[in-house]
Amino acid sequence: MERGSRIAVLMRDITKRFPGVVANDHINLTVYAGEIHALLGENGAGKSTLMNILYGLYQPDEGEIFIWGKKVKIRSPKDALKLGIGMVHQHFKLIDSLSVAENLALILREYKFLVPLNEIKRRVLELSKKYGLDIDPEAKIWQLSAGERQRIEILKVLIHGARILILDEPTTVLTPIEKEKLFKILRHMANEGHAILFITHKLEEVMELSDRVTVLRHGKVVATLETRSTNPRELAKLMIGRDILAPNEITTTSPKIVRERKIPVLEVRDLYVLNDKGFLSVKGVSFSVYPGEVFGIAGIAGHGQRELIEAILGLRKIQKGSVVLLGAEVTNSSPRHIMEKGVAYIPEDRIRTGVVPDLSVVENLILKNYWRKPFSGKLFLNMSLIDRWADDLISKYRIMTLDRKAPVKLLSGGNIQRVILARELSGNPRLIIASHPTYGLDIAATEQVHDLLIDQRNRGVAILLVSEDPEEILKLSDRIAVMFEGRFIGTSDADKISLEDIYLMMSGVRE
Amino acid sequence: MDVSWLIPPLHVAIQASTPLVLAALGEIYAERSGILNLGVEGMMLIGAITGFVITLTTGNPWLGMLMAAIAGALMAFIHAFASISLQANQIISGLALTMLGMGISGLVGKPFIGIPLRFTLRPIAIPLLSDIPLLGPVFFKQDAIVYLSYILSLAMWFLLYRTKPGICIRAVGENPAAADAIGVNVALVRYCCTIIGGLLAGLGGAYISVVYIHAWLENMTAGRGWIALALVIFAMWDPLRALPCSYLFGGIEALQYWLQRYGINPYLLGALPYLITILVLTLIGASESLRRRMAAPSALGKPYAREERTA
Amino acid sequence: MGISLRIERRAYAPLWLRIGIPLLSVLLSLMIAALMFHLEGIDPLTAYRIIFLSSFGSPKGLSYSVVKMIPLLLCGVGLILAFKANVWNIGAEGQIIVGAIAATWVALFLVPNAPSYVVIPLMFIMGFLAGGLWALIAGILRGKFNVNEVIVTLMMNHIASKITEYLIYGPWMGKTTWGFPESDPFSESAHLPLIPGTYIHYPTLIIAVIAALLSAVLLSYTKPGYEMKVLGLNPEAARYAGISYVRTIALVMFLSGGLAGIAGVGEVAGLHHRLRYPWAISSGYGYTAMLVAWLSRLNCLVAIPVSFLLGALLVGGDAIQISLNLSVNIVYIFNGLILLCLAGGEVLTRYRVRLRRE
Hints:
The complex is a heterotrimer of chains A (511), B (311) and C (358). Helices cover 32% and strands 25% of the residues of chain A. Chain A has 511 residues and is of the alpha/beta class. In chain A, helix 3 crosses helix 4 (117-131) and helix 14 runs parallel beside helix 15 (443-458). The longest helix of chain A is centred in the middle third of the chain and has 16 residues, at 176-191. Chain B is an all-alpha fold. Helix content of chain B is 69%, strand content 1%. Chain B has helices spanning 7-32, 40-58, 61-85, 90-109, 135-139, 144-162, 164-174, 176-182, 186-212, 224-234, 239-255, 266-286, 288-294; strands at 124-125, 141-142. In chain B, helix 6 (144-162) packs across helix 7 and helix 11 packs antiparallel against helix 12 (266-286). Chain C has a two-stranded antiparallel ribbon with strand order 1-2. Chain C folds into two domains: 1-28 and 327-358, no CATH class; 68-325, ABC transporter involved in vitamin B12 uptake, BtuC (Orthogonal Bundle), CATH 1.10.3470. Chain C is mainly alpha-helical and 358 residues long. Chain C starts with a strand and ends with a strand. Helix content of chain C is 72%, strand content 4%. Chains in contact: A-B, A-C, B-C. At the B-C interface, helix 3, helix 4, helix 10 and helix 12 of B face helix 5, helix 6, helix 12 and helix 14 of C.
């Protein structure tokens, strides 16, 4: 990109308010033709909102947008496409059972009735060759890998004649090889004069791919820099702000006693797991969790944590590697078998997997135990015993509900979490797996959850904690690992690592 | 070798199968868009009585056919409204319409039972083609509706696979959320396909009463609507395959009594289409690769509502 | 400054709605049916009076209503179990027929000369097994191969019909029936005892009521019942809880089909005393039972009065046919309307309309 290139995108003073929060606060952004510009920031910093404004999904409350020097109003994605702005989404909008050509026929407006597939195939091959996209127009989408599907999304955008591309977290689902291929394609497109914007939280990608980077925090632009003049640490500091520069403010709750290494409760050895789309999302993870310790896995959601947990619990198939629980091999065992060994699970998606919303509090509390004595005999459930036990739990865990018979879906988020905790912890587990346990909870509920977990830890229970919040991880854990792109990018004892380090690792910067 | 003795039974078999072809074609479109229509039997009955009554009173079989198609389409509209706009359970809605169809047709048809119809469609021989030995008289000396069924099978196949509307239909039936995001009007596509389903079912029903039997009897569709449902699966939701598959099933039914003289029990033979359908479904379900290629549209029977965007 | 209407999702459906919708559906259907009567030139009030009187107005009418209630209750309870587990058993018709075939086999071929206390229990057991196994096929196909049970059960209805036709036109055609397509009549010992003066075959009735009570207990107080509910409401949570998908679906289908099979035994051994044309035996009870299940809001105890009411409706339909020369089709229309209104009315439980001031 040479100086003096045309300005492709100029966003001036863009402000967007939502109830209770200013998502974009007088943001200024300039993108030149031939430039790859990174948009960096934490979750909630305002990156997606800004790009949605550029793409016409939202309207700014204040501010102006200039495309190629002309002032414009972008009222809808249609307008954006007309202006030559194309967005490549994280979630591909492709119909699996149709072919590439057919998917394109669907979105190209010029084909109103007849669909000359051969012509479309020709256009696909042409563009594919020009930009090195490597796409077979006849392939059915379900046969293709994540990288190939993404390239089709890029093709969709190019075939509309887009000169400005927006990519939202493009490398989340890619293998390293696909990532390299994508970067090559983007670089090629930039050299051809396209302007490229990509949203990311991964610092190494920013360094590798972008020409310039804009850092957002709390809806404001913190800085716009030439990439070659900065480094990951500086970017991380800008992303998070001065708050983290005092790592000792966070007091960890782990007693600093020397713990003898006992036999691990959980051992995970070189685990490989696929995600729902069939792509590898856990790529060789190994660790152990000992009794009386909290092992915290920090990481932005989507780097394989969910698949890792589900694999350990027997809810997802393990492709390679093994899981050993209390000395016994449980790789690919049934969930009930694993639970019977004393494993408790606090799922991240409370309503969908944690409870049965239409059933009552009581019926949800016995979900894991209903088949055990004394809760049931050969056929019958011992209702009076169950009711008493449920009442006991309701008071012990302070679940606020009108009635034990009330359907769980009527409860607040915090109370639903209490139901789950009551259910899981009352079984005297040896291992607790807690996945984003305080997500969406208020301060009081969060405190309660933390206290419960620490209490269990002090009783000798092993705890595997997964969280997106590095402060929570640092506060509760004895040992910490950071998960990035399916692997542990770094592990450490809690007292030997700083919050800053965790943030950096979560953004992909290796030590 | 003189095979002219084959011609009459085969000719009849084609006629007997044509209502199946029409109903199946319509249901294929409905299911391809994701709507399960269990009301086919009821819609065929409504079509049958409407076609009969109109033809009898006006003397014009074409008008009868047209009104029958419209009647079927109206019933299908009710199903579409319930299933799409009200997001009702499609199984219940479809069965309810079958009951309604049976009831209304029985009620309206009571005074017409047993009255023979003199106005009907006569076979038209297509020049040249009808002279082909065996195939000619069987396929090309039929009435206009049979010819329509040939054309429709081809046209609907072409529409489904080679045109934009067809791709939209298939997209909506497989992944309505993605289709919606692309900008396809999911509800409109589903409404159209369901109504087409009812239209053709009504036409098929009218064919039975006006042409094939030219009389009205209660419940004269005799389960053809259910066979059409099985057909759609057997033809794997492909309009072109619907034609030969319909002839197979319809032929079995039409010829079951004629085959009796060869020792084949007509009733067990009659159970065969249903059994075959179950087997086909099991095979598809059991095989991973078949499921990918030939399974039912993924969104079949599931109501679609756009998820609210959280700002 | 205006008022706007917004449609929002509901969090849950309040009780008044849950009761109100079925009631409203029935009312709406009554009104539409009244309109149809009117169009046919009949005074709706007269028609409704005849319906009411014929089914409720006399002990005879009440007894007829109970007779019709029996298969409706049995099948209805079976369907409630299935629907609770989110398994769509559309095959009750076929399961009734298969139960009837089994009873016929027992009565005519297995133990033709045995005394009542042998034949009758045996008929019920075999009928239950036959219906249960017939439904189990669909259940296993769904459990193991994820095959859509709606289509399979539907197909199996027709297969059951054809098998019956094969039997009554073929090997089982009665030697004493002068070529009519039916089996030989059952001997006296295979006739179910009736309440004197009525046609009510009370053993089946007792079984039906007990089945309803037991099913209610099953769902609320037993392990399998709990598993069915969880599986029907949240299959993911069910998997986590270790509930076996295949086993639960198989059990539910077996029970559902078995109950319908018993209904078939009742019809054939209590009323017809022979195997006849399939529709004559099942008479659409399998489909009407869906109405029972839905109107009862999937509650086994409520199904008892609901099945009685629907039985009364069917009796009324017969009565209109005779006295007003109207066809029984009115009943089909009525049933269809109620189902349609119920299905469409569900939307009210999921969404509400809110008035907003702008």
